[in-house]
Amino acid sequence: MSTPKYAVIDGEIVEWDNATVHVASAAFKFGTTVFEGLRAYWNEKDEDFYLFRMHEHMDRLDFSQRFMRFDGAIPADLVTEKTLELIRANKFAGTNLHIMTSCYVAGMGGPGACGPVGLAITALERPRSANVLKGISAQVSSWMRVPDNAMPMRVKCNANYNNGRLATVQATTDGYDTAIFLNSRGKVSEGPGMCFFMVRGGQVITPDTSNDILESITRDTVLQLAREAGYETVERAVDRSELAAADEAFFCGTAWEVTPILSIDRLPLGSGAIGPVTKKLQQSYIDVCEGRTSAHAEWRLPVYKGAAAKAAE
Of residues 156, 187, 280, 310, which has the active-site annotation? Predict the structure, then answer.
């Protein structure tokens, strides 16, 4: 995979190969890092990128830092400024980007080390995955989603994602595209790094936030778009057996966007093709992210035109 020219480390734009963290840091040894993944969508007509729901991502990054008791959270304004600078420095254009923002304990020490805190940002070109368009298969994992009173999934801490890695490796080894977690109560939780939705009896249903899921920004977006499209949305506990009764299902997340699930445990959902509700919500989501509609302009932060506007002030 080709890499861009620049990344951000400790708040400074540096050459890609110089964006390093020491192996003795608590971040490396214990995973004491929190992160946000977000997208910058290219709009051909406007010749600009739109960062999607940057403000909400920064709010969650601040929460994760505070929850992990980091010594001095990296301010949201600084992260936003450096993200915009990084995209402009790399002179990206023409394709969507995936951006990883990490705040980490750069100092040495044990698992309880809380500082000093560093900032790293990378931006990579990432066209839309073929799975978003064609759909995927999923396996109900034998691995359990970690409960909130052990490792809370609403905190985007790197160490949490080893739970998802185990389920992903199992699923792909068994011939599936990805996995679905059940929680400690046997209820459907989410995927390894994305939220789960199903359509049943005309309702758009997703596990509520008490079912050990990430309080996902994409999930919130989909719920809003579904209501605006006239669908009844329901947030509640979902039994495993309900998966077989679903007419449609899909995952959603920053990286996954809205990805249809065609089968679960090799049992086709509905006709086994992408369902009409999933297709409509997927298109609505893409239209809003890429600025093909005037709706929800408050969710889109321009990159290049934003710089021009700031320079003109």
Answer: 156
Is 156 among the residues known to form the active site? yes
Among 76, 67, 160, which Cα is nearest to 114's?
67
Q: Per-residue DSSP letters for 63-120?
A: HHHHHTT-SSPPPHHHHHHHHHHHHHHHT--SS-EEEEEEEEE-S-SSTT---SEEEE
Phi first, then psi: give them for residue 195, nearest 5 degrees. -90, 155
Tokens of 58: 């920064």
> For 212-304, where are the E strands, in sequence order?
232-235, 248-253, 257-264, 267-268, 300-302
Whether 300 contacts 174, CB under 8 Å: no
- Structure confidence by residue, pLDDT tens digits, 82-103: 999 999 999 999 999 999 999 9
Phi, psi of 15 (to 5 degrees): -60, 145
The phi, psi pair for 64, rounded to 5°, reads: -60, -40
Q: Please, which residues bridge with residue 232 across strands?
A: 203
**Residues in the chain, how many?**
313
Q: For the segment 193-227, what is each residue's pLDDT rounded down to a tens digit?
A: 999 999 999 999 999 999 999 999 999 999 999 99
User: Which residues lie closer than 8 Å to 112 by C-beta, 6 or more apart?
Assistant: none
Q: Is the pTM of this model over 0.85?
A: yes
Res 43: pLDDT: 97
